Every structure is written in C-alpha cells, then in structure tokens.
Amino acid sequence: MNDKTILRYTSNQRTNHWLVAILFLMAALSGLALFHPGLFWLSNLFGGGSWTRILHPYMGVAMFVLFLGLVFSFWRANYFSANDRLWLTRVGTVMRNEEEGVPPIGKYNPAQKVLFWVLLICMLVLLFSGLVIWRAWFSAYFGITSIRWAMLLHALAGFILVLSIIIHIYAGIWIRGSVHAMVRGRVSRAWAKKHHELWYREVTRDETPERPISKKG
Amino acid sequence: MASQDIIARSATTTMPPSVRTQEEVAKLIDTTKCIGCKACQVACSEWNELRDDVGHNLGTYDNPQDLSADTWTLMRFTEHETDAGNLQWLIRKDGCMHCAEPGCLAACPSPGAIIKHVNGIVDFDQDHCIGCGYCITGCPFNIPRISQKDHKAYKCTLCSDRVAVGLEPACVKTCPTGAIVFGSKEDMKEHAAERIVDLKSRGFENAGLYDPEGVGGTHVMYVLHHADTPRLYAGLPDHPVISPLVDLWKGLSKPLALLAMGAAVLAGFFHYVRVGPQRVEEDEHPVTLDPAVHEFDPSVHTFDPTKPGGEDRP
Q1: Mind listing the domains of chain A with CATH numbers?
Q2: Which of B133, B245, B290 sits opposite A135 (nearest CB)?
Q3: Helix, strand, or coil (residue B155)
Q4: Does the keyword S-adenosyl-L-methionine apply (chain B) (predicted)?
Q5: CA of A174: which chain B residue's CA is closest?
Q6: pLDDT digits over B150-192, tens only?
Q7: What is the dihedral of CA A13, A15, A16, A20, to 10 degrees?
Q8: Considering only residues 186 to 245 of chain B, which have any Cβ-Cβ distance to chain A shorter than 8 Å?
Q9: Which residues of B touch A169 (CB under 8 A)?
C-alpha cells in the first residue's frame, strides 16, 4: 500500500463532464419553464419566453454532442458484468451505508451503469424528438401526429433525465469524495478500495506487487 | 375588452376573474347558402390589414392554398359526388372554431398568450406569444400558423375588436348571401335548427349542425348538408377532440412530473438526514504502514511493534 492517490478522471474527461453538466442545467431549466406554467418564471433566466424558446434547442444539441464525448470515454466501463446482478439485489444494503454481502465492483457500480444507459437513451430520445418539434428548422417536415408523439416523448425523456440527474447529484453528495473525483480527478486509495474494489485492484495491479513493508527493511 | 372578460388564460393555474357573466356569441356558417365568392376572405384581409403573398394556382379554387399567418380564413372547395350521381360543390369557410375547450390554450406554455373571453372568443395575444408552436400541436382543427416574419402565432380572432364594441365580425358583415350570421350562441342554434328543418324538407336528410361535443362545443358552427360525414368538407374532423397525446403531455403529466421531481429531491434530503453520507473511514482499512502523515513533521517518531525495526522514520 502506498499513499499515492489514483487518477479517476483525466482533465479532459472532467472538462467534458462539467460542460455537459452546465448545458444540462441550462437545458433543463429552460425546458421546465416550457413544461409547467408554475415554472415559466425560469424563462426569465434566459431573457424571456421567446429567448427561452430560441435557445433551448441549441443548448440541447450542444449537450447531446458533448455527451457523446462522455459516452466514448466511459461506455466500456459501463458494460454489465457478472457481479452486477448480485449487487443490485443488495442495493438496499448499500443504501443503508452497510457493506456486508455487497460484492466488489469495478469502476462503476451497477446503479451507475444503469444511470449511464438511461442517460444515453434519454439523450437520444430528446435529440430526435427535439428535432421534430423544432419549429424553426424541422417541424415543417413532420405530420401533426409525429409532432404530438415527439412532444410527449420529449417531455417524458426530459422528465426521466431530470429525475436521473437528481439521483446522480444526490449520489455525489452522499458518497463523499466522488464530487472531488470529478472536480480534481483523483481519489484516495481507501476510497477506491471501498467503493470500487475491482477497479482498485485493476489500477494497482501494475504497481510493484510486493512493496517492501519498510524502506529500511 | 376589460380584463374581467377573460375566463381562461394559457399557462395559468389559478382561476381568472370569473364573476361577470356575459352571453356566449357564435358565428354560424351555413355551407348550404355559401356561393364561394370569397368576400369573407377579402373582408377579413381588409379589416385585419393582412396581405398574404400572391401564390400559385394549383388546380383548385382554394386561394390561397392554405391558412397562414396572413390568411385567417379560407374557403375550401370540395367536389362531392353523391350516391345518386349528382355533383355537389361543398364550400366551407375554414378558420378558427373558437372551441369552448380550446386545445391551443391547453397546450400553450406562455401565460396569457392565449385567452378565452367570457363570450367564448379564443384570442391570441401575440405580445405574450413566444413562438413555440405548441398551439398548433394542441389544435384539433389545424388552424394556428406561425409567422415566418415575427415567429408569432396567428389565427382568426372572431373580430374580437369589433365584437367588443357591438359590431359583427367583418366576414359576417360582408357575406352577400347571408350564409354567415352572428349573434348569441343560443340564437344561432335556433337559426340553424330552422335551416335544418328547411334543408331536410328539401331532401337533405342528413343536414345538421356542426357544434362538436368533443371540444365542448364551438363558437363557430356550421350548417352542413352532410352532418353525418363532416370530413367530406375538406377534412373537417368528424369527432374533433384534443388529442389524447396532448392531453397526456399537458394534462396529467404536468403535476405528476413536478411532484415526482420534488419527491426525488426530498427523498435525497431525508436519506441524508436518516442514513447520512458515506465517508471513507481511513481506519477501516488498516493502512498502518502508511508513512504519509509523518512526512509533515519529521520530528515525530512513532513506534510500531508490528514492523521490523519498530520505528518508522520518514
């Protein structure tokens, strides 16, 4: 064991993540403004209703494109593996901050993997339904029934996305050290071992396996 | 019109002023009397100062081809062959139906951009319109159009400005055959009933009034020779309703989604209150061999009996 921290996210990955996060925040706030009358006041953040209507799709497209960067970075680590099913059945234990019987997991736990794929699906639905209802450019090419379906799916996918991100943000608050991992990129060895033991073993495998216990021997 | 006369307002969750009552008005369009002269189109264009672009003849009498931000009413011509082999020229003046339950208003996200007056007129306030086109999605009759000039939605106002000062709509005033009449909704229904009796006596057995229930009735009604098949009249919907998709999108899902998002935030908060954060307890993993802490103060020496040599110097 040594005291070196472990790199979890490169600076490019962090930048990518936070760009997506900022764009998500903007797209979500402007989308919510158009979704529920009780939240229409959020449109003031973007310069009024018309500006919200104009900007929202561009924010969304930018978010999607940048999200693809995250997908390319992380999709391999989000493949489901054998332990994942067992972990998911023990998710209640995890929620109680207990560890007994929770199998070790890789770089991402199964809940994070589910989140990853849910986000990807939502983003795809949002993109394509969003293009259909984008009056300024594309709506003219679609019939009214397609537009109505797209409206509904867009709202639904947006809702699931917002809900997922609420959970994602809370998980960051709950699991101490994970926000720091995404801000500064590094995690402590103890953190890696506790939360992602298989990943921890993987990244430390290359190191000298049997370090002398003391330099002085 | 005074603000008290508005009884429904888009994207508004509280009740607008509803104390004052006023008689509901209606425009009755008798397709059986219409000669297709398009005077109503011209009157609409003149009164509302609208000048649509000159289009092209596409082989029909419809001119222009479709409603637009500059054409709020349009005669639609249909050549219909009856079972008896007679040709009928069905002419319908298309435009906003001024539904009692307007789909446009239900879909609109901008507070006050669409209002319904107590007399039944559904009006767009372009000053509040944000140009999203949700009204188009919500409308069962395919009426609103977004202007490419200012990206605001436009449609027939039922000449709310004229009606407010006791005048009939411009199209009504100009109609040379009396095919378009205007008055209280009750009077118009009565008038229609008389017309229908007359039409039936002259062989139009299916003559009837088009005042569709699905949208709560309309404030523009038609007398049709074929009230059993409104779709003959250039696709007038047989049973117009606000699409269930729109209903779901702008109805139940709105409060439920908001509730679920709020609940998710609360669930997180109370999880934190009850269970608390997961910290990595460095003690949990016996990293007793970790010399890191000692490097801060070289003068501190510790004795570790588990180690050969016992003492660990940085």
Answers
A1: 10-177 (1.20.950.20)
A2: B133
A3: coil
A4: no
A5: B277
A6: 999 999 999 999 999 999 999 999 999 999 999 999 999 999 9
A7: 140
A8: 243, 245
A9: 268
